[in-house]
Amino acid sequence: xxxxxxxxxxxxxxxxxxxxxxxxxxxxxxxxxxxxxxxxxxxxxxxxxxxxxxxxxxxxxxxxxxxxxxxxxxxxxxxxxxxxxxxxxxxxxxxxxxxxxx
Amino acid sequence: xxxxxxxxxxxxxxxxxxxxxxxxxxxxxxxxxxxxxxxxxxxxxxxxxxxxxxxxxxxxxxxxxxxxxxxxxxxxxxxxxxxxxxxxxxxxxxxxxxxxxx
Lengths: 102, 102
Fold this sequence. Notes:
Chains A, B: This is Ferredoxin, 2Fe-2S. Chain A is an alpha+beta fold.
């Protein structure tokens, strides 16, 4: 299969039973997810950059959480307006956004 | 932060709006997730092996899908009874389970 060069995971507090409770969901996790989806599409990166929503990572007090693999970089206290910078610097530029890194 | 050595992602078709529809959810995605959680706990690997449920990866016809990072290994048509083998061979043994790899 065509594997992603980068895979962005955004916590949306999506519980496996279909419920949705928790911190990241109430703190713009879904908006962050949607902003990443739009940026990936607008930049034509859909074939190489994947985006997924997830359940809780257990770091609620540091959320909203965004994780990028294969780098294993964890970002905390992300807001929707940070998405463009993460895309520019990290996803396209391969530089970790240090100010958001956990 | 303490980062995972391996991070297992299991599709449970968890949509960011809280709905839960799709293939993997109806095909034992939640049972697979729960089996991984039990195996990680029983083996005392909770500090180094993380497990998360996700939304759809867009590979429904090949599901249920399990992804392991940072290796970027994708498994398809996983059944709950495959979890022990993935834990033994891949998570603890660092050998990809070729028969399930996409």
